[in-house]
Here is the input.
Amino acid sequence: MKISYNWLKQFINTDWDAKQTGELLTDLGLEIEGITPFSSVLGGLKGIVVGHVLSCEQHQNADRLKVTKVDLGTDDIVQIVCGAPNVAAGQKVPVATIGTTLYDADGKPWQIKKGKIRGEVSQGMICAEDELGLGNAHDGIMILDPDITPGTPASEVLQVENDIVFEIGLTPNRADAMSHWGVARDLRAGLKQKDIALELITPSTTNFKIENRLLKIEVKVQDKKLAPRYCGVTISDVSIKESPDWLKNRLKAIDLTPVNNVVDATNYVLHSLGQPLHAFDAKKIAGNEINVKTLPSGTKFTTLDGVERELHQEDLMICDAEKPMCIAGVFGGIDSGVTNETSSIFLESAYFNPVSIRKTAKRHGLNTDASFRFERGIDPKTTEYALMHCAILICELTGGNMTSDIIDIYPKKIKDHQVFLNFDKANALIGQKIEKETIKNILSSLEIKVNNVTETGIGMTIPAYRNDVTREADVIEEILRVYGYNNIGVSSKLNASIASSIGVKDHQVQNKVASQLTALGFHEMLNNSLTSPKYSQLSDTLKEQHNVTILNPLSNELSVMRQSMLFGALESLAYNTKRKTANVKLFEFGNTYKNFETAREEQKHLSLVVAGNKTENTWSSQLGSADFFYFKGSNYSCLR
Here is the structure.
């Protein structure tokens, strides 16, 4: 998951540098796998400065070229040959100096070099808008404010945003951190533990205003278990166009491609607050009616990617009075989205059952930003708030007006859950005593409400969005990650118990055999227990009907459990020999699996494979083929 540092600072106003912040987030359990710079303009306009055109003369050998003298704020005046029709003396212009790297329309770099154009020396290039990556205009050079001082870096004059992007390796349980808001919450808790108290800044919805109620969409939720909460509002008189630079820069920083102002607004709120939203073209909603329901198995539905899919009876769908429009929480339909002709929209914000969304996304092989969050569990209390924030943003970007009341179908509210923490148990699990007041402060910084504190423990209310914190042990883990694993002391003594065992265990035999094989020059191989079903057709001892098949295989080549160790060994042998490793000795401990009418069978095996020569050619040993007789010979009597 990518997090923009500039975006993060909209929620928490920290002056820490990116490296410090990344280290703290990693300590908090949000592991930073990479930190990369981002610039809204490819190259960040490095090497581009403001120049003052002192003179502009006609090129003697070319009708369309001019020879200019340009002041770049240094002691030397440079000569630049320019072909732009609008270049003139007295202008302030962006100049790419010698050695500057520019990028063409395909993003390929090229460098400015000193050279001659039709016999005249040229020491740089006066740039047009598209040559700098600031737009598409190429009918002339950019002309800047005449008051700018020559030599000023163009990045300080032109609207270039520089950012730092964190790549967070998020664990599946941390659904609460799948947004900039969620990461900011953790960052605030970590900073508070370091005695840096910062407020969490959340978007205001005070400007939410219903202009009129001329466009009402009726909403019916037929299965409230699959859609516990469903919100919506209509916005009319929208003008679909390109988003402003600030919004495009936010999305580009996290590798999202801007589409238009409405779609970009929904994506922005998704990654900002963690709440997926979807905008429907209101004119395409038949009967001005939304039905949230399932459809019969086999129903055909074409998604936004143009693929016709066959629905399952458990797939939750967003439908109008006549047809399905969207696979709820997963993917939109091809005919319901926002286009350049859209003039009114129905904006949806919902909380869907995580298990239902996960099964539907897996069933159709779809993995979207929305399903990624829904299937892990979002915050049900943010549904209406995110809708209001997104509606305000869309009205600002499109000039539209809100033309209905907010529809909020939420019959059975999802409640926060209660947990009691015993102090002694917490200290025993952590291995160190943490003061009660410190525990209380950590819980409060994580927005966990402390209800009561006694001598023995603390009662608390866990917010619904922390669906991974349900037990006392989960709370202890939260305390420990904020307190800091690095702050837990290491004992000066090590306690251990002596274990006694009767008989010989399987793993002991396996370790003994492995040691013997290693001494004989073998290497251990580890093959996948999943394999291809075609292998069962290559041996008379294997039967296709005995295959143990996988319900949701990653591929056809990994769709059954292996009946034999042979084919994995041959794959490993082929892999090595193709890479010029001629002498191979391999072994593997593993299980085989067979499916019979009455039961399934699982057996443990040791497989050995040798190829090439017995040993490498050295002064003290002679080459000898590792043939069948070598393989079964007395060399391995130690294994019998």
